[in-house]
Amino acid sequence: MSTSGAGATSGAAGGDGRTRLEDLLRQAEAEAEARERQASEERAVRTVEAPTAAAPTDRDISPAVAPDAEDENAVAREQRAFAARLGGFRRTAVIVPTLDGDLMTAVYGGIRWVYAFSDRQALARFAVAAGWEPPPADGLEFLTVYGARLLDVVAPATGEPTGVALDVADAETGGCVLFPPVRGIVPDEAAVDGANGEALATAPGEATA
Description:
The protein is of the alpha+beta class and 209 residues long.
């Protein structure tokens, strides 16, 4: 990992800033749910609008149901797309801002989220959304670290459920991705659905902005 940034940490948000950070996470989650809901509605509309054929005879009935198969294919495509995004994130060096020597995080939904950004432009958009004026993208101290290290090393080291929020200010454009602490994303011992999930879920932790 390498450290970059000029001078002391600037733009540190207090109570209001912390609320803004959590609002960004809330917005990102809402946008993800809205996209999933829209995809489900579109699948439902396609099913309803499908042309109706003549009543089938016993000979025409197939054990496979087309609408269900279409839904399964759509889910499979979404899973493949997320897997590809996860793989790309793991192989990519991202920017992780720090405040007072600690990684910038916030707790939302019982999970501590580490903020990561694809590039300086994404970090600058975050600074604007968080209400820092002027945007301190060049003044913030930050680390450059591979996504795999955040998920495989940092998440287990916190001792509480920890995920990564990538480009959290870009939720409206679909650029934000949340990598929650579940198996397949973080090591089993750090996953809330893993062997230590119950202990992790009850671990104490306070938001850091």
